[in-house]
# Entry
Amino acid sequence: GNEYPEDLAALPPQIIIGAQYVQAAGVALGFKKKGAKNVAYTYTGDGGTSQGDFYEGINFAGAYQAPAIFVVQNNGYAISVPRAVQTAAPTLAQKGLAAGIPGIQVDGMDALAVYLVMSEARKYSVEGNGPVLIETLTYRFGPHTLSGDDPHRYRTADEEAEWEKKDPLVRLRTYLDEKGLWSEEQEEAYIEEVNEQINEAMKKTEQAPKQKVSEYLQNVFVETPPTLEEQIAKFAAKEEA
Ligand SMILES: Cc1ncc(C[n+]2csc(CCOP(=O)(O)OP(=O)(O)O)c2C)c(N)n1
Ligand SMILES: [Mg+2]
# Structure
């Protein structure tokens, strides 16, 4: 049963690092209040765990025993800042301890291990046991973005070569090949199918109406306070113009 309450489906996107942790805690609390058998998932990088919102999100979800799965994709760097410089904590998973929620560290280069941990966490959360924090140990095969980040300024070629050996796609394919569960033809067909899905999604997204600032502000309170009403009216007037 994966019912998704309509009014939670229209939350606006945001790009503030870590802020999605607070939003996920809120969505999870919404699920709990509505009695929806669902779990709110969210992801951040290791860099996101250095941001205040990370702690607020896991703490709030823990306090309310909200069904949220918080995933940290720890690839060792926040753009160029090494993980060890970001925190004195030996692991990121252990940050769950302070929030009173389970923290699990998993080999993020092992797709089956990640699947197992995610499934178990979902079961735990959906059964009303509260949130889970999962740290996946992984790597970024490339720059943080294509706008000027050159990883060779902060990572060695030797380190990259070590991680490339652990490529989860190659490992999973080798595993499936050896079990006789996957073939070249299946892969080609699958790539075609997924490319179609991506093209469809791109088309749909490009056709979506542009979001408005006045709409963002509608999601903050059930009953919008007058001061916010004023701001909404101001933006709405600008958008009309
Ligand atoms: C609150 C906030 N501070 C800073 C930034 C700028 N910023 C964008 S990505 C990033 C690093 C994020 O690190 P991580 O999540 O580990 O990403 P990775 O480099 O592994 O891709 C920073 C500091 C931001 N978007 N939001
Ligand atoms: Mg990172």
In short: DSSP finds ten helices and six strands in the chain. The two ends are 45 Å apart (CA to CA). The mean pLDDT is 93. Residues 210-241 form one domain.
